Amino acid sequence: MKLNKQLDQIRESSTVAMADRVLALKASGRKIIPLHVGDPDFETPHAIVDAAMDALTNGDTHYASSRGDRELKLVAAEKHLREVGISYDPESEIQITHGGIHAYYLALQSILNPGDEVLIPDPSWATHSNMATLLRGVVRRVPAPAENGFIPPISSWEAALTPKTRALIVNYPSNPTGVYPSKEYLEKLQTFAIQNNLWVVSDEVYQNLYYEEKPISLGAFPEAKERTILLNSFSKSYAMTGWRVGYLLAPKGVIKRAIKASQNSITCVAPFIQKAAAFALKDAGVQKEADAMRAAYARRRALVLRVADEYPKSRLKLTPPQGAFYFFLDFRFLGRSSLEICEEILDATGVALIPGSAFGKEGEGFARMTIAASDADVEAGIRAIFEWVGER
Ligand SMILES: Cc1ncc(COP(=O)(O)O)c(C=O)c1O
Q: 1 lies in a domain?
């Protein structure tokens, strides 16, 4: 029997492969320090859980509109106006989605035709390329080497351009590197998009997780609003990864198509989840809890750097992330593949990491370590890694 060929072009997720390996090791009684998955170790704030329970009790248990809950779209628009300064019409320019990944799917489904080319920095979250391939787009990676702070020089975007290029896809703060560029750079990127008539798809799921100056949204440039598509999610900022809710901010024509794609794939996001998400955006107590989570990530980031200070002679040198919740550890001095390094670290120390090569060629030699884990695990994990390096 014939099967879909498009899926054969996609490698299995290394994150999932590592998670499977970790489960197998745990089942054999091994103690594992889980620094591989990008899932906050915090519980979802209880007030959000209560809001979902209330909605369930009040009968929000049937089909909802494919367009998304009106109130949720309204508060999402208000948040965006407050934080980024650009207004979006909740009825025609916002779509509620099944998490950030579905927002990304809807964005690409709404703009790509088979054979259209998309430009994606290397390294970047694997789904960015995989989804484009699934939807029969052609992916061109734009090198974002460590030597350039993991940001592609504008000349590299220009070099990757062809007459078939339709979109550029970026994610700042970045998974896996934690970097985000200056306003001047983003301005240049938008100018490049305008000059070449490209869509700009900006994955901003880590926008509220930062440790330095507040990152600028690619949606902050009014002259580019008609070509900019922003995606956001509750997963990371509110520790709501399992709730599967996010949203898309985009021009009317995109949202019209996104609604059709949603209607014919998921029907709607569960209404009680949408009610709880609206509550999360409105409630001052929830905002305080979200701020406390961000403060905890900042504390763990400092903790990692303090441990690193204890190993001044180590060949492992750390670059602290500006945002998101990952360190991208540079093991290139070992001259071996990221996969081998991660497997060896897991076997020798029990610390689970994700090979940098999972994010692209420019990630080879690196490994991603999350700080969305307990302080104790983060401290024990980074210490074990330094001890392991010390012997090499
Ligand atoms: C860059 C990036 N975008 C999107 C997502 C997906 O988030 P969600 O749980 O909202 O689907 C992730 C999750 O790891 C991510 O790292």
A: no
